[in-house]
Write a structure and sequence with these properties.
InterPro entries: Aldolase_TIM, DapA-like. This is Dihydrodipicolinate synthase family protein. Keywords: Lyase. By secondary structure, this protein is of the alpha/beta class. It has one domain (4-261): TIM Barrel. The chain has helices at residues 21-31, 52-64, 80-93, 110-124, 143-149, 165-173, 201-204, 206-214, 218-231, 238-248; strands spanning 4-7, 37-38, 72-75, 97-100, 128-132, 155-160, 180-182, 196-198. An eight-stranded parallel beta sheet has the order 2-1-8-7-6-5-4-3. It is globular and about 45 Å long.
């Protein structure tokens, strides 16, 4: 059962758009002692922009350098069939689970969402981490739907990024047996009962992320908020600023972001 701080890894890119394996290894070594899992190719890893080769490389390099840490590969594609194809590739690479949003589109119904996850599980056998967000997919998972999804065999976690701490608490209090992770740094202390945290700050300060999980006081939350402000984690293009700081620290060789985001 997953818990603690899971890091949604940045994707270190060279100026020629290839994924930098050495920087990936250094980043993993930087966080290794403080995190309980590695989550490449999610939003913080610019996962919705990565092409097939870039996605394959960052997932492959993460598995290669993961040591004993589980790898949960992000898949950010709009359609169920596309996700199934990529989930199969992820399992072939050797990941422990896949992290999947709902299908993209404002018209997606809650029934569509349930069938989406059931189809992925049935077609691939992959353990699935549910990713509840709205910014990318254009829709979100309602409470009753989440409860239904938690009954599907092979659901192993929820990245709860609704931005509503009361909703996250309610989901944690449901005691489904599926661990719930807060996806927003500024809401960690307000989301009582969670099993852990998944957010970009973990790339820079995983120890601080662990500290607030143990001590979710207003004072500790203020400390987290101040660090996030310092490093640009609360900006809309947080991945750019987190990469800049990782580059300044000598952890990744280049602060380059995907060409479509420059």
């Amino acid at each position: 059962m997953y818990s603690g701080t899971i890091v949604p890894l940045m994707t270190p890119l060279n100026e020629d758009e290839t994924v930098d394996e050495r920087s990936t290894a250094r980043l993993i070594d930087h966080v290794r002692s403080e995190v309980s899992g590695l989550m490449p190719a999610l939003t913080s890893g610019e996962g919705w922009k990565l092409d097939e080769r870039q996605w394959t490389d960052i997932v492959t390099y993460t598995v290669r350098h993961s040591g004993d840490l589980p790898v949960l590969a992000g898949i950010q594609l709009p359609e169920t069939a596309q996700i199934i194809e990529r989930a199969r590739r992820a399992m072939d690479i050797g990941v422990d689970a896949v992290v999947v949003t709902t299908p993209f589109g404002a018209g997606v119904t809650q029934d569509d969402i349930v069938e989406h996850y059931r189809a992925i599980r049935a077609a691939t056998g992959a353990p699935i981490f549910l990713y509840n967000e709205e910014a990318l997919s254009g829709n979100k998972i309602e409470y009753d739907t989440l409860l239904t999804l938690c009954e599907i065999p092979g659901i192993v976690g929820i990245k709860e990024s609704s931005g509503d701490a009361a909703f996250t608490r309610k989901m944690a209090e449901a005691a489904t047996g599926i661990p719930v992770f807060e996806g927003w740094e500024n809401l960690i202390s307000a989301a009582s009962g969670i099993n852990g945290f998944i957010g970009p700050l973990a790339n820079l300060e995983p120890g601080l992320c662990n500290a607030i999980l143990v001590d979710p006081t207003p004072e500790r939350q203020a400390e987290v908020d101040a660090v996030c402000e310092k490093y640009g984690v609360f900006k809309d293009d947080w991945y750019r600023w987190v990469k800049k700081e990782l580059h300044t620290r000598g952890i990744i060789s280049s602060p380059a972001v995907h060409k479509d985001l420059r």
